[in-house]
Amino acid sequence: MPAPSHAWLPPRRTQEIRSYTPRFRVSELTRDRLGALLPRYAVTSLPVDPPAAFGRPGEVVFEIGSGHGAAALAYAAAHPFASVLAVEVHVPGVARMLAAADDAGVTNLRVYVGDAVDLLSAGLPPASVDRIHLFFPDPWPKRRHEKRRLVQRHTLDRMAGVLAPGGVLLIGTDHPVYADHARALLAAHPDFTARETHRPEWKPLDGFEAKGLHAGRPPVYPGGAPTP
Ligand SMILES: C[S@@+](CC[C@H](N)C(=O)[O-])C[C@H]1O[C@@H](n2cnc3c(N)ncnc32)[C@H](O)[C@@H]1O
Hints:
Blueprint: H1 28-41, H2 50-54, E1 60-64, H3 70-78, E2 83-88, H4 91-104, E3 109-113, H5 116-123, E4 129-135, H6 153-162, E5 163-172, H7 176-188, E6 192-194, H8 207-214, E7 223-226
Parallel strand pairs: 1-2, 1-4, 2-3, 4-5
Antiparallel strand pairs: 5-7, 6-7
Helix pairs in contact: 1-4
Bound molecules: S-adenosylmethionine (SAM).
C-alpha cells in the first residue's frame, strides 16, 4: 500500500486554507531521485538562513510553487551568483526538478518541500529575499474558491515582510480572473507599489504558461515592489 501523498510533506505550521490539493502518486523513480538528491538540495529546518543554506551571500530568489522547476533552473543557470530557493508541495515535480539540476550541474538551487505559507509566515528572516517569483499559480477561478488563491492580503503582508528594500515580486498568470485579483490586491496594499512587467527573457516557455498560450490565454506579469 503506497504512503498517502501528505505523508511526504512536513506537518503544516499554518492553519490557513490550503492553496493546493495534496494528491499525487510517488513512483519508484521519484522515490529514488528524492533519496539520492534531497540530502544535497533540501532545506528542512525553519527558519531558513539563506546565506548559510547556500554557503555564501548573493541575490536570494524565492520561487513559490515551482512545479517541475523549469523556471527555477533557468534562473539559477542564467544567474550563477543568485541563490534560488524553490518551494513546492508536489513531490513528483520536486524530484523532476532535482534530477534536472543534477544533470545540469546546478549548485545554486535549494528546495523546501512543503507549504510556501510556512516559509512566508516564520520561515524566512525579514528582508532576506530579493525576488519572489510566483509563476502560474493555481487560478481557483470560481468565486467560492477565491480564498484558496496564493495571492491574498495576508500572504502579500508576509511577502512584503521578507522582501529586502528594492526587492521585486513577480507574478505570471494566464488567467484574467487571477490577473485582476492580483492587480487589485497589489494596488490596495500599503506595502507594495504595483508594477506590471514584461515576460522575463530568461524564463523558458513551458508548463502552465505554454498550455495557457496554446489555449489562447497569453501570459501577463503583474507584480510589485516594496513601497520605500
Ligand atoms: C499551476 S502549477 C504551476 C507550476 C509552475 N510554477 C509553472 O509555471 O508551470 C501551481 C503549483 O503551485 C504549487 N503550490 C500551490 N500552492 C502551494 C503552496 N502553498 N506551497 C507550495 N507549493 C504550492 C502546486 O503544487 C503546483 O505545482
